[in-house]
Structure formats: C-alpha cells, structure tokens
Amino acid sequence: MAKIETTREPSPADKQTVREVFYAMCLIERCKPIMTELLWTLLGHNGAKQHEKILPDYCYNIFDVFQRTYFKGLPLLPEMVEVLDPAGMAGAATVENIKKVLRIDWEKMGQMMGIGMRCLRFAKLEAAQELASDGFAEMTPAETDEMLIVIFGRSWVDANLEKIKTAPPDELLVEKLNQQLASWMATVAEQGRKLSDLAEEFSPEAMVQFSEGFSEGLTSFLDVDSQLAGESNRSGLYGFLLLVWPEIKAMLESNPKKTLSDLHEWMKPFMRRGLTSYIEIDALRDVCAPPPSGIGLSLRPLKVRSPK
User: Fold this and answer.
1) C-beta separation of 228 from 221 below 8 A
2) Are 201 and 95 in contact, with CB atoms under 8 Å apart?
3) Which residues neighbour 208 within 8 Å (Cβ) at sequence distance 6 or greater?
4) Staple partner for 258: which of 20, 93, 106, 251, CB 3.0–4.6 Å?
5) What does the pLDDT look like over 84-138, one tens digit per residue?
6) Cα 126 from chain centre
7) Sequence-ordered alpha helix ranges (H) in the chain
8) What is the rounded distance in angstroms from the CA atom of residue 250 to the CA atom of residue 299?
C-alpha cells in the first residue's frame, strides 16, 4: 500500500534538505548550462549533429515546450532572413545590393526586437518592483545571507559582506541581474536602432512591417503586467525540474536507476517549502511520460503489485 501523506507543513528537516541542495550548487551555476542550451534550442538547434548536449534529455524536451509557449512569438533566423545569393553576400555594401542577396521578413525582425526591448525594460525598470512585492525587502539579515548564498554561492557572499550589510537585498539582486545582462542589453539596444534605420532605408513598407512586428513583440513574451505570456499549469514544475537537473542526472545514472517513486519522495521537502506546487505521484507520472504528452524523464516505473 502506498504511504499516506499525513501533512504538507514544512519541517526543520525540509529546510535543511533544501538548503543543502542549493548550497552545494547555487542557482547561478545551475542556470548557466540551462541558458546556454535553451538559447541553442531557440536558435533552431544549429549544428545538431556536432552539438554535445550537457544536460539530461528531459531538459531539452522542456525547452521544446517553452519554445511552443513562452517563446512562440520568437522567430527563428531562417524565418527572418533568407539568403538569395550566397556568393553575392560579401560584396553587398549598399541597401540596393542587400535587397538582391537577402529576403528579409521585416515584421518578424521587428517582433524579435520588440521581445528583446521588452526584456530590457523589465531588467532595468521593473525587476526591483517585482522583487519588492515578493517580500525580499522585509527579510532579516540571516534570511538575506541564506537567500544570497542560494542564488550566488558562498564565495560571492563572503566577497561582498560590506555591500550586503548596507544594500537592500532587492537592490543587490537587480544590480547583479543587470551586470549579468549588461552586454546583452547593450547589443539589443544597438541592434534595434540599426535595424530600424535599415528598414527606413529599405522602403516605407519595411518601416510599417518592422513597426507592426515590434509592437506585437512587446507583449508576446512579457505582458504589460510583467508576467510571462503563455503560462501553463505545468510551468512552475518544469522550472523546478530544470533547476534540479544535477540531482535528477544522478538519479538517472544511478545503478540501479531510481524510480518515479524515489523522485516523488525526494521532491516532497521542496513541495512543502513552496519551491514547487504539490503534485501527486500519478500526475508526476503523466508529466514524466514520453513526448509529446510528457517530458520524457525516463526513470524506472513504479512496481506493479502482482495479484494474489
């Protein structure tokens, strides 16, 4: 008989379990390969045969779901630009020459830039408000230290003790976010201006199409309330399963391989601490099923009791 869950209230042991996982590898380090491989997915799996995957397979299936939901408005490069004359690319120095060697979908180009500029605005002007509303500003010094270790790691916290004593935690997080995105934000802003100028030189039609696509892009990823567009009821669970990829990778590589029941039991402290919504094991089985209905997290199935 399956063990009955008697309480969903977090215990001190749950807090310690969660702390140990994220102290062992902070969120920044966990997210680096996630962002690298997500970008590779969003760019159309370029060089798929030569690409060496660095995450478990289920992560890439989650990325495919994200591409169909959160990033459904993000055009792929082949959708935006078609090379008509590869040999003439090198000598295309004028707008008239560019028109002969490239076919540009200006609406999709504008859509891509709209998404980029909307993300830029969020990072610069909205992230602090979102963090403040999440209660970061009311944290005690001990809670702040713990949260910063979870996100950035102990080495970063030890090196920034003086700053941590004087700066509110939400300001520290926004500052770090902007540092991480600084080069990307500068590139987005510069490319947006260049593409707008190029559309103007191309034709009046190109200007209109770029503007229409830009307007659509402003709300196709983040809406006006700073929330992700295309949110699904599994989104929070997908995000959690991505963040704990090192632990799930160890389960997949263990001998014998862990079962779905092992994963569900391991997740309970995180559920009780609110890092992911509570999910029954049957629902988790559906989530982990092979694509397209699930994410293909191929743990050993639950044992089926033989009839007596």
Assistant:
1) yes
2) yes
3) none
4) 251
5) 998 888 888 889 988 999 999 999 999 999 998 998 888 878 877 776 666 676 7
6) 18
7) 12-24, 27-42, 57-68, 77-80, 95-101, 106-121, 127-133, 141-152, 154-159, 161-166, 169-202, 204-220, 235-243, 245-253, 260-272, 281-287
8) 11
Neighbours of 53 (CB within 10 A): 12
Angle between helix 12-24 and 141-152 (nearest 10)? 40
The span from the CA of 59 to the CA of 295, in Å, is 8
- 3-class DSSP state for residue 129? helix
Query: What pTM value is reported for the model?
Result: 0.81
Which two tokens mark 37? 């491989």
Cα–Cα nearest to 260, from 302, 218, 292: 302
- Within 10 angstroms of residue 304's Cβ, the number of other Cβ atoms is 6
Q: Which amino acid is at 109?
A: M
Select from 290, 300, 246, 269 the least CA-distant residue to 26: 246
Can you tell me the distance from the alpha carbon of 290 to that of 198, in angstroms, rounded to the nearest whole number?
45
Q: Cβ(104)–Cβ(81) under 8 Å?
A: yes
